[in-house]
Design brief:
Helix content: 25-40%
Distance between the termini: 31 Å
Strand content: 15-25%
Number of helices: 13
CATH architecture of the largest domain: 3-Layer(aba) Sandwich
Oligomer: single chain
CATH class of the largest domain: Alpha Beta
Number of domains: 3
Shape: globular
Mean pLDDT: 87
Number of strands: 20
Largest sheet: 7 strands, antiparallel
Structural class: alpha+beta
């Protein structure tokens, strides 16, 4: 399932926006003056399909309509019974000529849930209680109610988590559950340099949750990912090596001809070299396939051998392509330093004169590029919708101009849709065909 169109009526009470998603090009860019609702719209879409209704509850609007590629539609409205604490969210799903399906999300009375709200400060980084029912979010200096805190940050609380608008499992929610499952949405926010959720290995060192550098978290993540892939490679290699003699004796398949064997051996060595460059395999002595003597006696052995090596190296196909492109994009931008990756340390930076450099000592622009493209390459599922807010932050004009070109290359590896909110004409560059201007039709 993909989104074809987004329509919001009377945003802030007077603005109507209609966004036709560029489904063929996979990239849609919305732009407009400050205050027109670009970021708010991204937050509302993300929250709707990820169970966070904070913006939908608090931002004034009359109606939000999502039209999907199967011509079905989801309409979101609100009804205020007494005050904002008792506001209901109404969902209406219409598909073809079938009867519409309805769902009303009713808020729970948080004061009678028995949840120990005094622990919010202990479990949510950046939150400080300043009144009996008021908290301050220190990074933005926002004053938040209990409802606000749980809606925005409830996902970082330990179980049992409390939902402001709980969805009970049953037939009336099946259609909404199905949409959310089919429509994977990820939001890359403007504030992307700090992470709320430390990695598992860091949690044991933290007495209290705190925000950490995203580059530190992602460095550890990629190291763990590489280790898992290498473990899988080792397991497959062990099984194939153990059964090699038996399979060789019992082999009834026709061996490859000499020319095909030479081509396959050469291709495997080239692949090994790429994997070595990507730091996925250790450097080994290369096989000189040109001088290798192949005859009828060893054709069977070599045929089984190349098939085994292909199976072993196939485990690296997806990650090696992503690492190659990631390093290419980052090293094309960074000056006087170079990025590498390994299974021990994740991101490894070295200056041109060979001195190590910590990831947290990169400039804000360098960290933005590192985090943004890491998320796009390693944390996005195929056919997702990715919402990106202000990709131009802290970036030099030359880097902004390269953004869409590199984004195209990322999408080629694993197709997904992107909805971008930007103020920068340099991000758009020569791709105005991808843009939708939010001019704010007043209603």
């Amino acid at each position: 399932m993909r989104i074809d169109k987004i329509i919001i009526k009377e945003l802030f009470g007077y603005l109507t926006h209609e966004i036709n998603i560029k489904t063929n090009e996979r990239i849609t860019i919305i732009h407009g003056p400050n205050g027109i609702g670009k970021t708010i719209l991204l937050r509302m879409i993300y929250g709707l399909f990820n169970g966070n209704y904070y913006e939908i509850r608090t931002i004034p609007f009359k109606e939000l309509t999502i039209i999907f590629n199967d011509k079905s539609s989801l309409i979101v409205t609100k009804e205020n019974k007494d005050n904002i604490k008792h506001l209901e969210i109404h969902l209406k799903y219409q598909k073809e000529t079938k009867s519409p399906k309805m769902l009303i999300l009713k808020p729970v009375d948080l004061e009678h849930t028995g949840f120990p709200f005094r622990i919010l400060e202990e479990d949510i980084p950046g939150i400080e209680q300043i009144g009996q029912e008021t908290w301050m979010y220190l990074p933005t200096q926002e004053k938040l109610s209990l409802e606000d805190v749980l809606e925005r940050f409830g996902q970082v609380l330990p179980p049992p988590r409390i939902s402001r608008f709980p969805l009970k499992k049953g037939s009336e929610t099946e259609w909404f559950d199905k949409i959310k499952k089919e429509l994977s949405i990820r939001f890359i926010e403007a504030q992307r340099l700090m992470s709320f959720q430390p990695s598992q290995s860091m949690k044991k060192y933290l007495r209290k949750p705190q925000m950490i550098f995203a580059v530190v978290k992602y460095s550890e993540e990629i190291a763990t990912t590489i280790q898992k892939i290498l473990s899988q490679y080792g397991s497959i290699s062990q099984d194939l090596d153990r059964t090699f003699p038996a399979r060789l004796v019992k082999s009834n398949t026709q061996p490859y001809d000499i020319t095909t064997l030479q081509e396959k051996l050469k291709s495997l060595e080239e692949k090994r070299e790429r994997l070595t460059t990507s730091s996925l395999l250790a450097k080994t002595e290369e096989m000189n396939t040109k001088d290798l003597s192949i005859d009828d006696q060893n054709r069977v052995v070599l045929s089984v051998y190349v098939d085994d090596v292909e199976k072993k190296l196939d485990v690296f196909n997806e990650i090696s392509n992503k690492i190659e492109l990631f390093k290419q994009i980052i090293n094309d931008r960074f000056k006087y330093k170079k990025l590498d990756l390994n299974k021990e340390n994740g991101f490894v930076f070295e200056t041109d004169d060979g001195k190590p450099l910590s990831a947290i000592n990169l400039s804000s622009g360098e960290q933005h590029e590192l985090v943004l493209f890491y998320e796009l390459l390693f944390k996005v599922s195929p056919n997702s919708l990715i919402l990106i807010d202000e990709p131009e932050l802290s970036l030099h004009v030359a880097w902004q101009i390269k953004f869409l070109r590199d984004l195209d290359e990322v999408i080629k590896l694993s197709p997904f849709d992107v909805l971008i909110a930007t103020h920068s004409p340099d991000i758009i560059h020569d791709r105005w065909d991808l843009t939708v201007a939010l001019e704010g039709t007043e209603t």
